[in-house]
Design goal:
The protein is an all-alpha fold. The chain has one domain. It contains three helices and no strands.
Amino acid sequence: MSDDKRDILEVLKFELNFLEQGGYGRSVRTPWKPTSIFLDSPSCINFNDASRPHPCNECLLTDFVPANGQEEPVPCHHIPLNSQGETVYTMERQREQVDLEEAVKNWLRTTIQRIEQERAVKAGRPAAVPAPTPAH
């Protein structure tokens, strides 16, 4: 469990909004350098600090990292994003950026919904039921 005191739900919603607004496009300051999911986001506890003063295990995103990814240099890149177990780490090497970003968006939406439902149950409110998807 991380020591991060931020509200996980707010951080995930912010990350989703950041991603949907094109947040991982090329930086104006360093257009030659590709951006990195989570690391180049304001959600990162070390955002905009090249010295990286906070160890990753202090970040709340590590709560989603399986034990075998906790000791990796960038643990948040080892969060399973889908039922196939793909991660930012594996998708960066095997997929297009657009596929990676879509997988992260889907993971964020699913995780946000799950946390909202868990909180609703804890608060004694009925959990929101997702709208049915139309049949094709």
